[in-house]
Amino acid sequence: MSPHEGLAAGLATLLDAPVSGLSRLSGGASQETWAFDTMRDGAVTPLILRRAPPGAELRGNGNPGLAAEADLIRRVGAAGVPVPAVVAVLQPGDGLGEGFVMARLQGETLGRRIAAAHRPALAWQVGAALARIHAVDMAGAPELRCSQPLAEVAHQADWHARHGMVRPVFQLALRWLADHAPADVARPALVHGDFRNGNLMVDLQAEGGALVGVLDWELAYLGDPMADLGWLGVNSWRYGRHQRPVGGFGHWAQLFDGYRSAGGTVDEARVRWWQVLGSLRWGVICESMGHAWLSGAEPVMEKAAIGRRASEAEIDLLELLLPLAPAH
User: Strand pairing partners for 188?
Assistant: First the structure.
C-alpha cells in the first residue's frame, strides 16, 4: 500500500466513512493540506486534512501546534466567527500524525482577486469578526505564547541582526518603534497573528463580497488585539490597491465601524504603531528568505524572489514614518 493509499485508508477508519478524491493541495512548507470527500447519509461531504509534515517537531518554531489550532478554531466558531467546522482531531493511536480534519469551505482566497474591487461590506464584516476573536474566552484553552509591544520590537531587532545585513531604514523603524511603543495591555487577548488578505476566504458572488472563513491560525498568541488590525493594514496585503488600506478592499472607517459594532474598542494610535511594526516584520521576513538563499541553506529561487521584496517594505516604512508634506 502506498503512503497515499495508507492515508486514505486511515482517514476512512477515523471518520467511519469511505474516502475518495484525496489530493495534496500544498507543498507543505509549513503544514500539509489535503482535500478529500466522504459520503455521509447519502451526501458527499467535502473535507480538508491539515497535517504536520514529517520532521515538523524538530523545527521548534514556537507555534501552538495543530491540536491547539483546532481548539482555537472551535472556540472562535462558537463566538460567531466564520471558520471551517472542525470534524476530528488526530490522535496518536490513529497513526496519521498530528493534525485535524475540518470542513472544506467554498470561496476565494487569492488576495489579488479579493482586492480587485472596493468591498465596504466585507471590510465591515472583517472588523466584526476581529472583535469577536479578541473577545473569545480563553479559560481552559491550550497554552499560547504571550507577547507585548516592546517584546515584539526586540524580537524583530534580534531576527534582523541575525541576517548580518545593513538596512538603515530598518534601523530607523526599530528606533521609532522603541521610542513610541504603547504601554503593555493589561489583559492580553487572543490575537490571530496573521490576519490579512490571503488568509480570508470570501464569497465574491455575494453583493460586495461576503466573509466565508478566517483561515490559518498557526501563529495565534495572546497580546494586543490592535496588532491584528495593524497587520491587516500593511501595504503588501493590498495587492497594488494602495488607496484602500484595509486589504486592498476597504477603508479604515469601514473596518473600525465593524469592529465597534461587535463590541470592540479601537485605539487608532495603537493600530498605526502596529501597522509600522507589521511593515517592518514583513520586511524582516523577506530579508530572512533572501538570507536563506544567499547562505545556501535553501537554494530555492522563490526565496530569492521574495528576498528582493525587503526593499518594498523599506519604501512602505519611509512612507509611514516620513510622510511627504502636501504640495503647495
Answer: none
For the segment 57-96, what is each residue's pLDDT rounded down to a tens digit? 544 456 788 999 999 999 999 999 999 999 999 999 999 9
Superfamily for the 3-103 domain: Phosphorylase Kinase; domain 1 (3.30.200.20)
**40: phi then psi, degrees, rounded to nearest 5:** -130, 130
320: enclosing H helix or E strand:
helix 310-321
Indicate whether 132 pLDDT > 90: yes
What is this structure's pTM?
0.92
- Average pLDDT rounded to a whole number, residues 181-203: 97
- Residue holding cell 517592518? 280
Query: Could you tell me what percentage of the chain is helix, strand and coil, using 3-state DSSP and rounding each to the nearest 5?
Result: 45, 15, 40
Contact call for residues 223 and 153 (beta carbons, < 8 A): no
Element (H or E) spanning 203, and its range? strand 200-203
Sorted by where each begins, the domain ranges of the chain are: 3-103, 111-321
Q: Write out the CATH class of domain 111-321.
A: alpha beta
